[in-house]
Write a structure and sequence with these properties.
two-stranded antiparallel ribbon, alpha+beta, 9 strands
Length: 176
Amino acid sequence: MGLRPSDAALADLAGYLPRIGLDGARPTGRQTWHLTLAFIGELDDRRVEDVSAALTALSRTTAGFALRLAGGTVLGRTSTALCVGTDGDTTALTALAERVRTGLRRSGVPFDERPFKPHLTVARPKDLSPAEVQAKVDALGGYNGPSWRAEKLVLYRSHPGPPVRYEALERFPLRG
């Protein structure tokens, strides 16, 4: 469950990444880029309907908001993912993530309960030392992409890889 940035925002990020170099890391691929609001994991088809109902209700009462991809971070204690962070209306983003998670809980749909950390994964460090990972995070620290409007939630199904593939099952326009 997530938000897909605008094509212009994704193109800008794709143009920036060669500046920092991803040698020693496995790039994730532009077609997979999105901001995860809640990671659901395996979900059978009957539960997709439960998620869809919760997200339909939520999207009717939530307005779109402005974001930008900016800065660098890592996920995991061992830096398993090199990521770009967010800027803009991060208060609205965090509130949306919490509303999505509340809707999933009410629907009885299990999801990863780790605290929400807005990010877009650009690579998975493979053969990089912690110092090399930190150098890439620092290089991403200078990134400040164009503003875009978060206007629809997307329910994704992931297909393991490599490479991992994401399939958009359903989109929910934010109409509040």
